[in-house]
Amino acid sequence: MDQFPLALPVMSAQTGFDLQRVEVLKGPQGTLFGNNATGGAINFVANTPTPTLEGGATFSYGRFNTIEANGFISGPITDTLGGRIAVKAVNGDPWQKSYTRDDRNGRADTIAGRMILEFEPSSDFKASLNLNGWRDQSEPQAPQRIAFVPQNDVSGAPAIAPFTYADGPVPFPQATYPNAPHNARAADWSTDYRPRQDNRMLQGLFRMDYDFSGITVTSLTGYTDLKFDNTTEGGGTALRDLDLRSDSGHIKSFTQEVRIANDSHNALRWVVGANYERTKVNEVTWLAYADTSNTYVNGFVSHAYETRQKMTNYAAFGNLEFDVNDQITLKAGIRQTRAKRDAYAFNGDLPQFPILPTDTTFGGTPGGTLTDFFNAVYGSLGPLYGGPGYQIPTIAPGGSIILDTRGLVLGDPSANDPVDPDTFLTATTVNTRIRENSTSWMVGADFKPVDGLLLYANVSKGYKAGSFPHLLGSLFDSYAPVKQESIMAYEAGFKAQLMDRLLTINGAAFYYDYKNKQTRAKFVDPLFGALDKLLNVPKSTIKGAELEVTARPMQGLSLSASVTYLDAKVDKYLGAVGQTAVSGVLVPVNASFKGVDLPFSPKWQYSLRADYTFPVSSALDGFVGAGLNGQSSSVSALVVPGSATFGATSDLYDIKAYTLVNANLGIRSSDGKWTASVWGKNIFNTYYWSNATQAYDTFVRYTGRPAEYGITVGMNF
């Protein structure tokens, strides 16, 4: 945001309002934007205070009674101080419909605001303060159930004492639950734990620029405080299948950057600086799953897991650009980063999340706790791992069930010690850390052979820091971090402005060579089985090309088109596709993923847009526009085509190709004081989805929104 880093993606959730522009920089951008910019960087540039008093507002009303209001006021406060205040609010009725009962979900309720003060007492010094925040109390989207994929055998009686049912085995409700119809609005969610959220963020950004003798010193100081409290539907049914009854936490992030740059008009331009970031993330999740095959077999119905992480980054960077002559510019940059991550993890029964009276098993028997279950199971594991007569210590109520007290620190020799019953069978919390260093760099050249044509080539190295998972593992291996990801990127392209800038053509070809790419995949926990977590793919590559064309063939008419081609493949990865029981614990069944597609990497992405503005009278202009965007098919996870992954066939992970069409029509005053328009989004009501994933016993999709239409009016002064 205005060159200030946002430590986590959730921080940008409601920042897209009252913007001057959005800068999209293809990756990697590690030299100037840090060690987590392997995929590029997006910079939201907010509108700043204006030299004269200005204001404006827009109001939209659309389908589902959605009302959106935007407003701003901007101008000088004194001769040296200017200010701008902007707000945005959205409120709307639910857009999802239950397909098994009369119920609705998906209400919109957000508000965001931003105040910017700019102080410029002289031509040499300028300071700005950006105070912004938002609150989101909308109802999170519920997924669509598309398949039943049981993770435990439910054909017989429950297996683990003392969790037996008073009336014996009963029908398993998931087996007969209907799948959702192919309708964007159709979904289902738990009636006990309805989707809800109450998330809020407050942020302060302070910038100072001081110029002296052709040098500019810039200081960027930022602090962000975000709290979240959500209830989220996981399994796409009205059952208690995989529901985040509560997912709450607190994120605090502080950043400080100081950089020095010379005048941008010099033939040799340079920037040097240093950056510090410290972020704390605390998260507690209360998971409910009384209607899953796990409860049918094992009897426990819910539990909680908690993580606390501290992330600290130190970096120093520099960048050079040199104009050899009017045609050739050489570029180079480097950034040295040290990243520290400290983590604590708990998995068990927390006293603030008790077993509720409604948490019963299928036969009506009160559900058991995770602690009770593990104490019962550990009795049989003791002789298996510790020898005849070995007694495992009992886990006290409220204790963590995570096994193994060997070290978790990367490089700690004890992490590779043989399993010892005295440590392996001792429940504990996880306390661990990682320390990583990286050197990002970039070299490139620009060549302008003629006016209006730029040719360029860049080679760069970038990194993405390692991290710890937030999940419900039973063994220290489940909490092992992913290592830092690295990318070697090669790109060459051109930018051409032709016919007196009436025609613009940009094109590029690129090759990305990844090492240890962080990708969500399956991990087999010895007791819980298949879990989703970030894992490292040792080697993968992305080859691609893109082309953008913008034309203005006549007065008032603007045409644009873009297309991107990607060939994103795994070159080396041995990963889990199933699990089997060995000596009382689950172990993975592995397969090679060489040659499979990387997730969310469609081979083709494209867009077309046409806009036409025409005079209606001396005081009125009309405008009409239409556009489409789409993509070819892709996959949502690492899967081997034609095979099954933990009982789910590979086609369940498919994201089908789709094309969306939008259009608008309106009038506005020639002086820009007011505007009115009607619009439509996804006007052909295309059914599509952006993600597909396994939610324990069910497989679900997250659909795109259906056709929407509305009217917008705006005014400025």
TrEMBL record:
Domain TonB-dependent receptor-like beta-barrel, first and last residues per copy: 165-683
Protein name as catalogued: TonB-dependent receptor
InterPro entries hit by this protein: Beta-barrel_TonB, Beta-barrel_TonB_sf, TonB-dep_rcpt-like
Family to which this protein belongs: Belongs to the TonB-dependent receptor family.
GO terms of biological process kind: iron ion transport
Superkingdom field: Bacteria
GO cellular component, one term: cell outer membrane
Principal place of residence: membrane
PANTHER family reported for this sequence: FERRICHROME IRON RECEPTOR-RELATED (PTHR32552), TONB-DEPENDENT OUTER MEMBRANE RECEPTOR (PTHR32552:SF81)
Keyword Transport applies: yes
Keyword Ion transport: yes
Compartment(s) where it occurs, according to its Swiss-Prot or TrEMBL record: Cell outer membrane
Keywords: Cell outer membrane, Ion transport, Iron, Iron transport, Membrane, Receptor, TonB box, Transmembrane, Transmembrane beta strand, Transport
Recorded topology in the membrane: Multi-pass membrane protein
